[in-house]
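Give me structure tokens for this 234-residue protein.
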Amino acid sequence: MKTIFFDLDGTLLPQDLDVYIKDYFGYLVKYMTPYGFDPKRLPVSVWKGVNAMVVNDGSCTNQERFWQVFEQEEGPVTPEIRDAFNRFYATDYNKAQEVTWKAPQAAVLIDRLKERGHRLIMATNPLYPQIASAERTQWAGLDPNDFELITSYENCTYCKPNIRYYTEICENIGEDPKNCIMIGNHTGEDLIAREIGMDVFILTDCLIDEDHVDLTDVPHGSFDELFRWLGLTD
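Here you go.
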């Protein structure tokens, strides 16, 4: 049985990424400003932390890398501030759900793969705390417990598109990449999994293809085509 890796944002959770990012930062800034953050500076500091995670070299977790860089920009972060960030993801962050929507096929897909006995991995780019990725999984109408692993900034030391992100997951779950399938919507971040022998399907409903990749020889298409490719049609 193949182990199935899923991207979340734009794949199982359809969205316009630019609209989502604008909403997300708007809610974050509003929530954190009372704790002394400059509303114009805070997004810049967060982005610097995010960019540091993207190029993380495996020497520490993405969480550790983020806070190292964030503190360089904003000064020492107290336990109170970290708690406030965590509370944001448990509360006001959920308002950003309004700019995403559910794909009804997603829950059906997960249920059928579970019935077949596949191992399921939520391979969402680990730029967020676990609580935030679990919340977005629920926004998609899915149960986080259906996934053996949801990648997050706490449990990863690399990010997409670094190929080590995929090898690290395979090592952690004890799986051969050649026995895995990656399903995602981003040609730059998800298609790279082929380099270690994983099969890849590019879901095109919310396609991100900044480099205009030729998908002629790559399995791709809508949810209906994904169902057919996985042999899940009746």
